[in-house]
Description:
Blueprint: H1 3-14, E1 25-27, E2 33-35, H2 37-45, H3 49-59, E3 66-72, E4 76-81, H4 83-96, E5 112-116, H5 128-146, E6 150-154, H6 163-174, H7 183-186, H8 188-200, H9 209-221, H10 225-249, H11 268-277, E7 281-284, E8 287-290, E9 305-308, H12 316-329, E10 335-341, H13 345-358, E11 366-372, E12 375-376, H14 393-411, H15 417-437, E13 445-446, H16 449-452, H17 460-477, E14 482-483, E15 486-487, H18 515-524, H19 527-537, H20 541-560, H21 568-591
Parallel strand pairs: 5-6, 5-10, 10-11, 12-13
Antiparallel strand pairs: 1-2, 2-4, 3-4, 7-8, 8-9, 14-15
Helix pairs in contact: 1-3, 2-3, 4-18, 6-8, 6-9, 6-10, 12-13, 14-15, 17-20, 17-21, 18-20, 19-20, 20-21
Amino acid sequence: MVVPRVQAAIAQAFGEEFRDTDPVVRPSQFADIQINAAMALAKKVGLPPRDAAARIVEALELDGLCTGVEISGPGFINLTFDGTWIEELLNAQADTAQAPQPQGGPETQARRVVVDYSSPNVAKEMHVGHLRTTVVGDSLVRVLEALGHTVMRQNHIGDWGTPFGMLIEHWLEIGEDSPEAALLVEDPSAFYQAARAKFDNSDSGPDSFATRARLRVVSLQSAHEETLEVWQRLVDHSKVYFNAIYATLGVSLEDEHIAGESSYDPHLAQLCQELEERGLARVSEGALCTFPAGFTGRDGEPLPLIIRKSDGGYGYATTDLATIRYRVHELHADRILYVVGAPQNVHLRMVIETAREAGWLPDTVEATHVQIGNVLGEDGKILKSRSGTPVKLMALLDEAVERARAVVDASRPDLSEDERAVTARQVGIGAVKYADLSVGHDTEYVFDFDRMLALSGNTGPYVQYAAARIRSILRKAGEAVSVGGAPLGAEPGTAVAGPLEGETTAGARIAVVEPAERALALHLLEYGATLRRVGELLEPHRLCAYLFELSQLFTSFYDQCPVLKADESVRESRLALCTLVLHRLTEGLDLLGIEAPENM
Length: 600
């Protein structure tokens, strides 16, 4: 809320080249906030830190915002906000919370953003490695949409290539009605492994499975009718499996967002031809390659990006180039985000550079790799099952719900069977997603159920509990606030957890008097700025940190400021403040793709 004013003051004091300087806003023991930018600027502008701070303060426009501005220590700028200003902004938020508006702010230019995420493979199990790309990508699209951008989800599934020869041939051998065919939905890895075992153990005779599988690849690429029909069945069965995972995770991907490798296959030959004609691709050791500027191998030689293999086939690079061209020219993207594993960084940067050199990716379009780190086991290595294979994602999610159910059964035996089942699902899935989102997306983290499900610390259940606690307070107060269409004062089980739809009957104005109220109010005012920062830096963990701190500040407020037993005017003000906190918690959790349980 004050950052743009501080940046404007820095620009006025030291020149426009310093306008984007981070003001370094921190909490203060002596005021509401502390601006620490002067220390970092001092050397750059050739002034002692206190003198630099004085220049900033002199240029600051804070009329009506602050009652106190003070320079302390080596150059800290302490700001104390005007209480009336805080109340006006807070009540404006409360008035608009019932009908949420885009959080981008007037300075945000709406853009068309393509987000490439999840990207599982047909006829293969989704494993824990897909968890982060799916969860982080889905949170980013939700935040970007909340900021007012037009977001196009792209699920670039692996649905083409040589493995489909053996998969199609295996399907034809076992028959669509066989129990093995059902594995495509129930256990895709088992179906794939059965086909692979047949292929690996086959001889090389003219009628062998391996030979037929190789010929099937040719017929697939030639658009042979029967082969394409079986291929489509494989894809459709896998969609059922994907959608079961997405429904369990509460992810917003649907069939309409699928843009698999197969959709680009008809354009790959022409793409290679264009690169050759423009002098960007040449044959090297039998393969057609580009050599984008700035990439060299260990030997110092230019690093090749293979766009057509020596056998005439196409690889990931070719398809990825085709996606860029399509997303720029057909989807008219201003920004393209690849939510993909960190090991793909060099590959993606080479693809992006090649696309720029070819003119398919103009400088006006941003292309960013949102790098995703690994999920580790307790041994510090990539999380695997006891057999050494990747952990199946559905099994992981089922275990999370099962563990959460044990906790809910023990702590809330008063709830009905259905209520406990719903709460266990919301808490278990929410715990897994929050644990993933609360750390930097490009860092690794250790998967630990006990930590994820804890009701203390920066966890999903801690934030969910804060929301459930406020709902309980409002029920006891008899406030006519509806959640999911049912009033909070209704009998347990009537209301369904979801975004708030109603408002307090009193329409009370929030007054900020006590220090705990003030701290909570100031943090509430940072909500929009936090979302803008998440959208700019593509870092959902900043929203998690915001919600965790909001939950902590609410707990302090509730401990220090009586709500239900306060005098009527104070009670109404504090209930209105509680309602606004609940709005922010449920809305923020929803932007993470996490539900807020009615009871915990």
